[in-house]
Design goal:
By secondary structure, the protein is an alpha/beta fold. The protein contains 22 helices and 12 strands. 65% of the residues lie in helices and 10% in strands. A hairpin with a 2-residue loop joins strand 4 and strand 5. The longest helix has 53 residues.
Amino acid sequence: MGTTIGRSVLPVTLALTLRSLVNAGVGVLESGQGFAAVWAWSALGCALGIAHALASLGARFFARRLRDELTLNITLAILTHAKDLDVAVFEDPAVSDIVDRAQHNAGAHFAQFVTGGLAAFTSVAQAGSLVLLLVAIEPLVAPALVIMGVPYLWFQLRTSRLEYGREHSRATSRRWMRYFLTRLTQPDSLAEVKLLGLAPLLIERFRSVFAEFRDGDRVLHRRRLLGSFVFAAFSTVVSYALFIRLLSRMAGGSFTPGDVAMFGGAVLRLGSMLEDTTLAISGSMEEIFHISALRAFFSLKPSVPAGDRPVPAVLRGEIELRSVSFTYPGVRDPALSDISLRIRAGETIALAGENGAGKTTLVKVIARLYEPDQGQILLDGIDVREFDLPALHRRIAFLLQDAGRFEATVGENIAYGDWERLIGDRTRLKHLAGLAGVDDMIEALPRGYETVVGRMFGEYDLSGGQWQRIALARAFARDAAILILDEPSSRLDARAEYRLVSRFRELASGRTTILISHRLSTVSLADRIIVLDRGRVVEEGTHEELLTLTGRYATLYDLYQRQQRQR
């Protein structure tokens, strides 16, 4: 703040010092006065010039520090808020653009607003002090400033609003550009893009979107250039007209040469100050528009309500669903319809059905990743909405169908299942790797458990089946009463699948386990099988009971057996 105040008043004091210095010099020439006054005013002017330079440098230094701190804090606030939002919020197409705008340098925009606001305050204070000084000398300065400054400020504010509106409307197109870029550069899609020859098509679509951005920017840039040129030309003409008027008044004896020198220097400086002030104000207004996008992001609320009831230390794991239904945002037909189901503590159930039957959606609803549209879910007889959500998630082990591939060491990939307990605990990590049948593979890596894996930063990449077994070990890492395995053997080879199946009972021991698999040999291990079709429970029973019904499960099992015989 001290540098801001200093920069605000120094231009006026420099102008007054220049006036006194010129008058002292004229006095020496006209009357032969000594140089004492000239030296004194020169020394003061020198000191003020150095002070002004220091104030400017200090202002830039503190502005950079402030920008860095604000960018860090705002970005952390965005990440913290994102942490508290649930999966359904990010899957809602209606909020995708809001999230994208918040990710688009939102912290930097807020920091720029604050630093730009300080710059605008400084510019206004500097220009205001100079205006007061100039008006005292020549009253015509006031109407001239109104004629010059007000239209130009209106023009810049309107242009800033147009630029923000343009950027605001580009969120969806910007996401498309990122999509085209990642399809052409990411290993997981690049091979298929090359085999299908899609690169020219994707490049042309990227070029088309970017060209549209470029053409729109060109129009606004031309508009801003023209407006700025008109202001610069007009302000220059007005400044010199006022200066000539003051010279004529000096010739009449109304002013001293020092007054003219001060007025001329101040008028010329005022033009650039008005330009800086206008741009600073319009820039701050544009940042306000961007901050509105940040406010929209922070206004997003979790769709999964959470209570504050602690999860019992001893959790039996009995689950009951009462008339549960769920529909994805933006979709007309429900993914789950009126499902009532009871899973006994320690029981292993399997969910069977064709693709799109609702199996994965059901387990995500049970795990409180989604909030059902209607119905109730009970855990050990207590409505799950009463529980503290992070505490509840810590008691659920979940192997997702598309499990995460974390850019980290192999040991950390496993430890992330319960990172507060397991990071650095090599003994426990080896035990978990053994349970998932991945210990031999890890030991064969260049640095064992310290090998960094992944395509972005890793020194070694894993196959799909190896990643699957790492994710399985991560799921077993949790001290969980509920174990959810979504297609645990989908990417495993025959040997790895056999090891998993043969040890399944041991792995699921003491936990309520929900298993999803299209491999019905794995499904048959469950105590009970729930068959879903179009989001509804259509059959329920043991493997043998369902085969005797000759219903949907029996049909699926017959198709599975035929497929196995054809291999």
